[in-house]
Design brief:
The complex is a heterodimer of chains A (about 475) and B (about 200). Chain A has about 475 residues and is an alpha+beta fold. Chain A has helices at about 5-20, 30-40, 45-65, 85-95, 135, 150-160, 200-215, 240-250, 305-310, 370-380, 430-440, and strands at about 80, 100-105, 110-115, 115-120, 140-145, 165-170, 175-180, 185-195, 230-235, 255-260, 265-270, 275-280, 295-300, 315-325, 330-335, 340-345, 360-365, 380-390, 395-400, 405-410, 420-425, 440-450, 455-460, 465-470. The chains are: A alpha+beta (about 475), B mainly alpha (about 200). Chains A and B meet through helix 1, helix 2, helix 3, helix 7 and strand 18 of A and helix 2, helix 3, helix 6, helix 7 and helix 8 of B.
Chain lengths: ~475, ~200
Amino acid sequence: MDKPSLAEQLDEALERAFSGRGKPPEFDDRLAPLLRIALRLRHLPRPQFRAGLKSDLEREALAAVGVEALPTARQTAMPYLSVENAAEAIDFYRRAFGATVEDRGKIGSAEIVIENSTIRLSDPFPDHGSLGPKALGGSPVKLHLYVADADAFVERAVAQGAKIIRPVEDQLHGDRSGQLADPFGHVWIIATRNQVVSRQEMQRRSNRILIEELEKMPGHDPIRKSFRTITPYMIAQDGPALLEFAKQAFGAEETYRGTGSAGGLHAEVRIGDSMLMIGGGFPGKEFRVTPTTTALHIYVKDTDAVYQRALKAGATSTNEPADMEYGERSAGVKDKAGNYWYIATHKGPRYVPKDLNDVQVYLHPHRADPVIKFLQRAFGGHERARYASPDGVVHHAQVQIGTSVLEMGEAHGAYQPTSTMFYLYVPDADAAYRSALAAGASSLEEPADQPWGDRVATVKDAFGNTWNIATHTGAKPA
Amino acid sequence: MASTPKASRVRADERGLLEAAQRDPAGFAALYELHFDRVYMFIVRRVGNRDVAEDLTADVFHRALANLRNFEWRDVPFEAWLLRIAANAIHDRRKRKGRELSFEDPPEMSSEPDLTEVEDGARLFRLVNRLPEDQKRVIVMRFAEHESIRAIAQRLKRSEGAVKQLQFRGLETLRTRFEPKLGQMPRKGAKQSRPKGGKNG
């Protein structure tokens, strides 16, 4: 066998180094210094991020010009406070807020000035409908005060008898502020202008807080443990037979077996790092659900051996094992229930290509493009790859949805459209249900909490596939 | 350590930029360009995760811009001030996330940062920008954007072999510029490592 070129060897070594799998078998020592450089480059920043942050900062800098602790007052409205015992209150505002008394009129009515603002206050006049906070049980109006130093201001006010409602803190919108109640029941927001924050920056900060809150919530994983975003749900007339086939041919490990909502079998099995759901009727019993057909691209360590086991378990051959030009040894079988299993071994450091799972669902739509568009609009799918021939036929495409990859190749010859059923985990089943309908799917079941702790909706897309859209909530229906 | 004449000239230039930015925040972009790579490298080495590193880097520069007027040259160099903000930002984040030490916080990265490492990393990032265009595109897609060879080949409409060649040449160019004193790659006769036996898996 030809030795791989230095460039090939280097790439192989990189793939391994990045996934922590050590040196490859073929490794020319001359590559070591290049590998060292490459390892440092692992942290190379994304140019888009770098440029984006710069323009954010430039916008912010522009907005920050002329920011002062006290924004210029330009209002004409003047607050008029009703206070039980105005004389005492005036004294308090003087000591606690540094107010000056501007115009002391008749007893219990005055204008005070705090910083650059004038506030009028008087005793209540119940006969004229003017009541103070004590009579009203609080005040619905808060006074927002910009001061040069919110911390010092609040400290002094508290020393004079004010009570803190919310301590002084940096706020998302760029102010530093807190709230306090004076002894007479009026509430004051005391703020200092820290910086002017752009709308984008405010959004960024609030998103980050939201994400951190979500991360802190216990058990808030919308995907049930050991599942991925996409799980194929294969339904056969004879459920137990299909389950048995998956076990014998692919070494599927049964993790759950019970009765499904339609009264048939519901089983869950693991193959490598992926889960499959298998359902269907029992032989000799009537079963109301229409069977599905599914094509799976399944990576195994030894294609030839698995192919032989599949034939022995009753499958028929569609392709004998062969080396493919795209770096896989692959074979194909069709099981008795009509499902296609594309068996493959990747020729690389691992039997599964990087970024793929052991099992991928494979679709054969007449046209790939509308399916990809549907997946993008309905479920936020992201097109990872598309290989088309010059006449526009898409031979292979990959769409990433969450933690799974869905593969497809346009229908030709024996490869005809399937009626696949998916169990799809999303962060918000209700929202995904709505976007699936907006993208052209039709509703089979509206979102509802299910006894197994998932909230599930079911839709059918325009291409004959059924989607159980689920969010794992852990909640049981009432 | 006494600073070399060159170092002090750099300092003086930077001081000019800084004072300009303190008078008019619009000048902050120049400081950003000067320090981005170091701050990013400092953070990413400690947190090990790109998304977190980007978030914290943005945070550091926003904080720096907001507090620029409070910076006084005589206390510490500007870079040290930025790295202190960065260290605080990392600390704050860990505190907010509670005691859970996730994979995002591998132990070897929590140790005190090696500033030479940070400086070297930043220098290497700058060298990437000076690569020939085709090498630079491959290196950026592969290392900054974490694209696969296959995806890069598709985007650039080149064969995968050609992309691997460009990756190889790009790394070669970087190495010769990054380690200029070490000379060329050893030629023929270099010892080969033995193939390790066994199929994997």
